[in-house]
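Researcher: Please predict.
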Amino acid sequence: WSVKLSAEALRAREILQKFDTIDVKLVESGGGIFDIFCDEELLFSKSQKGRFPNDLELHEIGSQLKEIYSN
């Protein structure tokens, strides 16, 4: 059998694969919300940008997170 994933779920899976050395938790919500937080700080918001993060933005977010958690 197969499961059709939403665009949000597919992008979330990509993010998890990119951040394999960082503990990432997905929090399910609704209404097309797709936000990336580090602790309480908003790093990316689909509702503010009107789109999903691109690969460059994901790389930059990953670099920020690695820097934060390497200290």
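Model: The first strand starts at residue 35 and ends at 38.
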